[in-house]
Amino acid sequence: MKRYEYLSQLEALLSALPEAERRDALNYYEEYFDAAGPENEEATAAELGSPAEAARKILESEGLPAAEPQPPAKSRAGYLWIALIVLVAAALVMVLAVLMLGLIQPGTAAESVSVATSFADEEPQTEASGNPALTEPSTTESAAEAGSGFTTMQTSFARARAQDMTLMVDYGTVTIQTSDTVTEAELLCENVRTDWLTFAGEKQVRVTYKTPANYNLSNDPEPHFTLTVPTARSFTFHKLNITAVMGNVTFAGDIAAEAVTLNLDMGNFSGDTVTAGTLSAVIDMGTFELGKLNGAQTIAIENSMGNVGLTVDGGADEYSIDIQSDMGDTAFNGQTYPGGYLREKENARSLTVRTAMGNVAVTTENP
Question: How far apart are CA 280 and CA 276, in angstroms?
């Protein structure tokens, strides 16, 4: 089992844990895989035991019942499975449409205000409930409106903390960009409610924007989260993890990281250039388009419904390749392969792309 499969299954099985505890547990296993190296992913997964076994131990230590493991997804589903995907997607769209029609009315929004807050040299505060809380805004007029209105916030982080960055957004667009004009990582949060926004982490940064269950978003402005970091020449993420339930994710410029993990439920990913040792992306409904991926030893992209377009550096003979589309066209270096393209090569860089419904186009810098 590959790293991304192991961690994805483990995260799902730990859904009963509070968010902070779940992330701490996942970080532990991520570090275990990091220490072993990409070439030892399958051996490491076997050494750790199945995700179900690991989840059971973690949940039992917290006094919680173990979740039932989900059956593994088949790499090449039949037409009945494809039909099921279509029906589920249609049902999801209908549910969202019902919510957007205003069956549940939101509270009245206050006027927007601008708040500047710095977290570069301080740790996040914690509420009595144990959930991480946002430090009180520095302007006087924002304090009365922070719990009910929309706010624009500019937040900065010291480089050491920003190198391990996790963004988890229920609703809103996420942009990661580079700039020659910044020396620290700067996060601009637009059209957000501060009571939904939390920061956590000591040596890393975890930003969460959590919308209440069954909340109607139709009358609210779309939140925007823009993280600006120094250029790749002077700044590299150690780990960059982004989870977006509803919204697009964009990488602008050359983003450098040792490891990039993307999880999108309903939204598109697009990027200019990424330089990373590993890249893992799981998309339920949306497209994946990356102009250029440099230096990656392990690439794993899964898309349930949407197209995938990717260009990687190096030559075709450097990769162990597994490209499949259950219902769509598969192209590698401009040539179409019905049913997919598979070439195993020992001790090579790993490139895996799988879609249930959508087209795949992968090219190498040197065919």
Answer: 10
How far is CA 355 from each of CA 71, 77, 328, rounded to the nearest angstrom? 18, 10, 8
Cα separation, 324 vs 343, whole angstroms: 12
Question: What does the block give as tokens for 294?
Answer: 């440099």
| Residues sharing a CB contact under 8 Å with residue 53, sequence separation 6 or more, in sequence order | none
Q: DSSP string covering 254-313, please?
A: EEEEEEEEEEEEE--EEEEEEEEEEEEEEEEES-EEEEEEES-SEEEEEEEES-EEEEEE
Listed in sequence order, the residues at least 6 apart from 170 whose beta carbon sits closer than 8 Å to its beta carbon are: 209, 210, 211, 245, 246
DSSP-assigned letter for residue 340: -
Distance CA 306, CA 360 (A): 9
DSSP, residue by residue, 81-130: HHHHHHHHHHHHHHHHHHHHTTSSPPPPPPPPEEEEEE-TTSPPEE-TTS
196, containing H or E segment: none
How would residue 104 be classed by pLDDT, with cut points 50, 70 and 90?
very low
Report how far residue 183's alpha carbon sits from residue 173's, in angstroms, rounded to the nearest whole number. 24
Q: Indicate the domain borders of the chain.
A: 3-61
- DSSP tally for the chain: helices H, then strands E: 7, 22
- For the chain, the farthest-separated pair of C-alpha atoms sits apart, in whole angstroms, at 63
- What is the pTM (predicted TM-score) of this model? 0.65
DSSP 322: E
Q: For residue 265, is pLDDT > 50? A: yes
Residues 6+ apart with CB under 8 A from 96: none
| Mean pLDDT along residues 305-313 | 97
